[in-house]
Amino acid sequence: MRSLTPSPSVAAPARHLPLPSPSLSLHCSLSSLGSVFAAKLMLKLIKEMDYVKGGLGWKVWGAALVLSKKLLSLQKSFQDKRVIELGSGCGLCGLLVAKLGACEVVLTDYEPEILTNLGNNALLLPASVLEPEQLGQSTTKMGSPEVACDYTYDELASHKRPAIIRVRILDWAEDASSFLEEKELSYPFWPNLSSDERFDWVIGSDLIYNHYNIKSLVGVINCRLSKQGGQGLFAAPVREKEWEACMELLEVEEGGTLHGVDHYEGGIVIIHVTHKL
């Protein structure tokens, strides 16, 4: 495979772009985005979790806010595209892409509590649940795997067709089945993501917490990114050498071109990768 070739902008001095000011209040943090999306939708609808139940996915982290701002600047790039969000947590970025005109968005995580919260957050959009016969599987009022997001109620996109939002288990180490067997059966059933699904965009924020999940993350990106010009957009705090190690492994595993690296205040970076055959 051809290695990732950094663009001239990558070699240039780092640009430190403004970081949304940190706040304990989701309302205050998102208001710094200055968007119709923040005002009309996310400030009212995104629900965070209790840390005990949600672990690292319990809240909207700073990297997700930065990625959201970047997604808004690329609005037209997502229209009629299939998008997967890795490590969705509360689902902010994936739900935003659904509002920007994507035809299908898959929100993924692996903790049952997080998956349930993702489904509930999707249902809190101005939306109607798709009928079971339309999708070939059942839906429930809360924690539904499939919802249709009707975003004609705001000004983010002129698109009038609803996006399909799916919630799926995606354990990067591919041990979702054994993991679920150890959990209580009181949680809603969330299907695994089919192994043959590929996407126009793979997005994610704050995905690297330990060095041992770097190779798994790169494997998921390589597997899920469409080989026909698929693109990846990732935001992360720079923690020691972990993100650099991830990029080095991408150079080995991916046959693509690194579009650029944007550095934000507070140590947040956004990486944009395009897959090329």
UniProtKB/TrEMBL annotation:
Pfam families named in the record: Methyltransf_16
CDD domains: AdoMet_MTases
Species this protein is from: Adiantum capillus-veneris (Maidenhair fern)
Name this polypeptide is given: Uncharacterized protein
Superkingdom assignment: Eukaryota
InterPro entries per UniProt: Methyltransf_16, SAM-dependent_MTases_sf
